[in-house]
Each structure stands twice: as C-alpha cells, then as structure tokens.
Design goal:
alpha+beta, 8-stranded mixed sheet, about 25% helix, binds coenzyme A, single chain, Aminopeptidase, about 180 residues
C-alpha cells in the first residue's frame, strides 16, 4: 500500500465494488462530471472496467483509497494514460460523497505524485478537470500543479458545455511533502 498522511492507496478489493458502484458511479451528476462521457448504469456482477481492475492493462493503474486509520474505503484514484516513451501520465480521483471536504483529495494527489514520479519514474503528470471544480483545482495546486490552459467548452455535462482546466506538474518542480 502507498501511504499519505491521511489516506492509503491499495489494490481494488471485491468488497469495494458494490460501494463504489452505489455511491460513485450510480450518481448520474457525479459520474457525468467526472468521467468525460455519458453516464450509463453498471450492471451488478458485470466486469465494468470502471470497477473491476484488469491487472494486465499497462496503460492505467487504478487504486482504491482507504483511510489510514481504520481502513475504511473512501474512494478511487487512478494513474492513467501512462506513456512510457514521453514519461507522461494523467491522474484522476473520486471520493465518496461522505468523504469529501476533509483534506483527503489533496493527500490522494500527493500519493499519486509519489507513485508517478518516484515509483514509475515519470517526468510529467497532468490533470484535466472542470473549471468549476474548486476542490479539485485546489487539491492539484496545493501539490504544485500549475494551470497551463483552458479547454473552452470541451465537456458536455448534463445539458451544457463546460470549460476544462489543464494542469501540469513536472518532476523537477515537485516538492514531496510540501503542500502550498
Ligand atoms: C475533487 C475531490 C477529489 C477533492 O477532494 P476533497 O477531499 O473533497 O478536497 P479537500 O478536502 O482535500 O480540499 C481541497 C481544497 O479545496 C478547498 N475546497 C473544498 N471545497 C471547496 C469549494 N467548494 N470551493 C472552494 N474551495 C474548496 C478546501 O478548502 C481545500 O483547500 P485548503 O487545503 O487550502 O483548505 C472530491 O471533492 C471529489 O471526489 N469530488 C467528486 C469527484 C471529482 O470531482 N473528481 C475529480 C474529477 S477531475
């Protein structure tokens, strides 16, 4: 398990799946905002790749996020779009509604940076998020990500086009353990 100050990132367990399906992916608004595609329901027992991890897939590494104290599941975190030639990847995260606003998001980003830069030897990490997602922007910027651009009207979300913000962090600018 990878450890931050409040959360740990571990493998997906079978018992995580019904909780993530019910609390994250069956929430139409949350899923529409976070996924970059149209919401559709996940059938119980299906091998939906959003929930069931394929350990052979090289391009993405999905984690379940747990509280260090007690081990309760609080969400998901993913290093995705891993490009080992350019040494670039993207990060994404989603916390269960009851676990938001307690500083876990910033800690998850910190642990994903450790995984990307230290464990995987990457050079650049990238985040795309909706321009109105203040907690995501703040979680990224606290860890040193900088806003590199606005993708105007790039996301169709629940009946309207929204802007996305592109943020990047280079390995040489990353300061482990210091959150601005
Ligand atoms: C986005 C998300 C991961 C952030 O995690 P979180 O644990 O809720 O965020 P934190 O508690 O670490 O807060 C991060 C910062 O945002 C600030 N913040 C939180 N809500 C805010 C709001 N509505 N407006 C402005 N700032 C806000 C916090 O004060 C904190 O700043 P600080 O460290 O300077 O005090 C989480 O809210 C989530 O899972 N949301 C739904 C899914 C999603 O949007 N995923 C991202 C897709 S790209």
């Amino acid at each position: 398990m990878l450890r931050g100050s409040k959360v740990g990132l571990r493998a997906r367990h079978e018992e995580d799946i019904p909780i993530l399906r019910a609390e994250l992916y069956n929430d139409v608004v949350n899923a529409s905002r976070a996924e970059g595609g149209p919401w559709r329901p996940i059938t119980p027992g299906s091998k939906d790749p959003r929930l069931v991890v394929d350990d052979q897939a090289q391009g993405s590494v999905p984690f379940s996020v747990v509280e260090l104290e007690g081990g309760t599941l609080v969400g998901t975190a993913t290093l995705w779009g891993i490009d080992n030639h350019n040494r670039v990847a993207h990060i994404g995260l989603g916390l269960l509604p009851s676990s938001r606003g307690q500083g876990y998001g910033s800690d998850v980003v910190a642990v994903l940076c450790h995984y990307g830069f230290v464990v995987r030897g990457l050079h650049r990490l990238q985040i795309e998020t909706l321009a109105d997602n203040a907690p995501m922007l703040r979680s990224a910027e606290r860890n040193g990500f900088v806003r590199e651009g606005v993708l105007r009207s790039s996301a169709w979300v629940m009946g309207e086009f929204l802007d996305e913000v592109l943020l990047g962090l280079l390995a040489q600018d990353w300061k482990p353990g210091s959150k601005a």
